[in-house]
Every structure is written in structure tokens, then in C-alpha cells.
Write a structure and sequence with these properties.
Length: 428
């Protein structure tokens, strides 16, 4: 290991570094009240932060807590904009120091990595091994132990002022949901005496999260010598023998206990790689096929309806909605979702020139992919009474319906009697 870095603070607390950090923190957020007020008097605010840092009196401000319920309940903490400026300045200097020690198969919150590369790496190992150990850490960010994290930071940084700033940010963390876990040597009050938890939403928390699990990464790759992929606290190890994976699970559990972490009892398991696996927002199928989980699609449709209503009410601009749509499309394009994307976005759903944009309802669960007739369009596939017709209404229009079958993941349709695909019909 290289010697700890020194003399970092001038590169963090200088006016030029803080101004650059403010511009970076404001990207895509200039319309928010905190960013707008800061950027309106940029030089004055930056000078105040610089002075507070150099005089050693800078402190973290209060967090705004936002409770999210999808896809699971969690508390996201938003720091004041002035704090985010300091976080960006700190990570711009400290981040590369830790980056040099990270393994190549850690993919979260790193330049040139990300979810898509992590999924591709998962598939690479899956195609070469018969079994996988899927693992998740129980309440990871609320369980991060401050004393252990500070010791990890001191292995790579020896600059006294930078360590003071790191400690100040960690100590300024707002209380997280309680994680009362006991480990060897603990007494009844130990979980109450140790400070734990980092705010989800901080740029610094993303860096600290990687630093805290860097030891696990090296243990898996260098001690276990396992094919290994990690994204935040979701990781996987691969081997042909499930007994070996069971042994690795026990050794990883013991290793994490020394860092006061536990494997999630439900989300940690051994499975054949021939089975479909849900990983980082995709359902991964044999043959390098990918699908989007139905729950993810449903959540996006709900968001899209909300954005549609806000756009119609004039409370959100069309370009902001387009950015949201494009981000989702970029995610969906990495799966076999052509029909879904075509159905949701044909014709430019949020074109400001369209007075009545098409509703993103899509087909129901069970999923209709294509259908219609020579005088009825495919939207009528979704319900028998879409045009105010009762379900018992019949006519002699020739057409078809093609639907996926939920019981067979990844199949476009299943075969019925006499080799006729189920869901494909003649006269209706």
C-alpha cells in the first residue's frame, strides 16, 4: 500500500476549488431555491465557505429528510447547498486517492463504471459458472460504524486538516433508522454507545460507502479468489460447486462481523446460474436476454402519469420531463424492451406541440404486446370496453392479439393447442 497522502487541504479549501465545486453541484439544479440563492451571489458565498474552512469553524448544516416508499421504504437526506459545495470539493481531491486502491469489479459511484457495466460483468461470470451466491448487506448505510470508517480513512490520508473535515462531515450525519445488531464482545449498551449511519443522498456517503466495503472487495478477490461483482451493498460470487459458495458465505459473514455488518438473511442465497436472476433493475435470463421487472415498469408508468399531470398544469417544463424520459429510456435500452419503449413513446409523448399527449397506461399485467384489427387500433387491445362497448359485445372484425404469459419469464408468447400461440385470436 502507498504512503498516506498529505497536504491535501489547500487543494480543497481554495477559492478556485470551491467555486469549481459550486458550479458542479449546481448542474441540473439551478432552478432549486438553495442553488439559485447561492449562485445569485456566488463569489460572496464561496469566500465565506473558504474562510470558515481555513479557520477550522465550518460545520455541517441541518438535513432535510425525505421518506421514500418505492421500491422500498428509506429516508433520503438532502444537505444544504453550501454543504454540497464542500462535499464536491472534498471528493474531487480525496476520491482519486481511494480510487487507486479499489478493485476493478466494484461498480457503484465510480467514473467509467455504473449499473450497465456491473450487469455485463455479472453475465460474464454467470455464463462461466453453474452457481451464484447472491448477497446483500442488512441495512448497509444505517449500519456503517463511524469509528471503523474513520480508521479506514486514516489508512490513506494523513493530512490533519482534511481528516478534520472528513470527521466533521461524518459526525454531522443526521440520525438514521436504528440497527440494533450485537457482535462478539458487545454488552447490552454497545449498540447505543457507537455512532452509526450515513445519510443516503450525500456525495460523501457514496465515497464512504465504497471505502467501507473496500476491505470486503479485497478479501473476496485476493483471499477467497472468487469471481466477484459488487454494486454498493449488492454483490455476487460465482462457482461451479454450491458447497464452496456455502463455505464462502460463512467466511464472508465472519469477515463482515468484524466490521459490524451482517448479511441480509433473506436476500443472501445460493442459486443455479441457469435460473432467471434480478440484478440492478434487470431480470437476467439465459442466453444473455434481459427484461425489466414488472414492478419497475409499473413505478415508471406511475411517475410518468404524475409528470404528465404536472406538465398539463404548467408546474413542470417539458424539457425537464424529457430528461426524465430519456434517463429511463437509457436504462430500458439495455434490456429487450423495444415493444415497451415503442408503445410508451411513439410519436413523441411529451412533444409540447401535442395538445393531448397519449396516456402511458400500456397493456395490463399479463402483458398485451400487440393487437388490433383493420378498423380498430392496438390501444383497443387493453380492454373490451375501451370504446364504451360492453365485454359481451361481438363483431366480425378480423384481427389478432399477442400477449406474453407471466408463467414463462422471457417468452413473448406461449404455445396453445395445435401449436397455436395463446393470445393470438381470429375474428373478434
Amino acid at each position: 500500500m502507498s504512503r498516506p497522502a498529505r497536504d491535501l487541504f489547500p487543494s480543497i479549501a481554495s477559492f478556485a476549488a470551491l467555486r469549481a465545486a459550486a458550479l458542479k453541484a449546481a448542474r441540473g439544479k439551478r432552478h432549486t431555491p438553495g442553488a439559485a440563492a447561492f449562485m445569485a451571489n456566488l463569489e460572496t458565498h464561496v469566500l465565506r465557505i473558504e474562510r470558515a474552512l481555513l479557520e477550522g469553524r465550518w460545520q455541517s448544516g441541518g438535513y432535510t429528510e425525505i421518506e421514500l416508499t418505492e421500491p422500498k421504504r428509506r429516508i433520503v437526506s438532502a444537505a444544504p447547498f453550501r454543504d454540497r459545495v464542500v462535499h464536491h470539493a472534498l471528493c474531487a481531491v480525496a476520491g482519486p486517492i481511494f480510487e487507486r486502491g479499489f478493485i476493478d469489479d466494484s461498480f457503484a459511484n465510480r467514473k467509467g463504471k455504473g449499473t450497465h457495466r456491473a450487469v455485463a460483468r455479472f453475465e460474464h461470470y454467470r455464463n462461466r459458472h453453474r452457481h451464484v451466491l447472491r448477497a446483500d448487506i442488512y441495512r448497509y448505510f444505517p449500519a456503517i460504524d463511524h469509528a471503523i470508517l474513520k480508521a479506514d480513512l486514516r489508512r490513506r490520508i494523513a493530512c490533519r486538516q482534511t481528516l478534520w473535515l472528513l470527521d466533521t462531515i461524518i459526525d454531522g450525519s443526521n440520525p438514521q433508522e436504528p440497527v440494533n445488531l450485537y457482535f462478539a464482545g458487545d454488552d447490552l449498551l454497545t449498540p447505543l454507545e457507537r455512532r452509526r449511519g450515513l445519510p443516503i443522498g450525500n456525495l460523501t456517503s457514496q465515497l464512504f460507502g465504497n471505502v467501507y466495503l473496500d476491505a470486503l472487495d479485497h478479501f473476496a478477490k485476493e483471499v477467497l479468489r472468487a469471481p466477484y461483482v459488487r454494486y454498493v451493498d449488492d454483490f455476487a460470487l460465482f462457482h461451479d460447486d454450491p458447497a464452496v459458495l456455502a463455505e464462502w458465505r460463512q467466511r464472508i459473514d465472519a469477515f463482515l462481523a468484524r466490521r459490524r455488518l451482517r448479511l441480509h438473511p433473506v436476500k443472501t442465497f445460493v442459486a443455479p446460474t441457469s435460473e432467471a436472476a434480478e440484478f440492478l433493475g434487470y431480470v437476467l435470463l439465459p442466453g444473455d436476454q434481459r427484461r425489466l421487472p414488472e414492478a419497475n415498469v409499473r413505478r415508471f408508468r406511475n411517475r410518468l402519469r404524475g409528470l404528465r399531470d404536472r406538465w398539463r398544469a404548467g408546474t413542470v417544463a417539458a424539457d425537464a420531463v424529457q430528461q426524465h424520459i430519456q434517463a429511463w429510456i437509457a436504462h430500458a435500452e439495455n434490456a429487450d424492451t423495444w415493444r415497451l419503449r415503442h408503445t410508451l413513446f411513439r410519436g413523441g409523448w411529451f412533444d409540447p406541440d401535442i395538445s393531448a399527449p397519449w396516456e402511458p397506461d400500456g397493456p395490463p399485467d399479463g402483458r398485451g404486446l400487440r393487437g388490433g384489427s383493420w378498423n380498430n387500433n392496438a390501444r383497443n387491445l387493453r380492454a373490451a370496453n375501451r370504446n364504451n362497448n360492453s365485454p359481451g359485445n361481438r363483431n366480425n372484425n378480423n384481427g389478432f392479439r399477442l400477449a406474453s404469459t407471466p408463467s414463462r419469464a422471457g417468452a413473448a408468447f406461449s404455445t396453445g393447442k395445435a401449436g397455436v400461440p395463446e393470445g393470438v385470436h381470429g375474428p373478434s
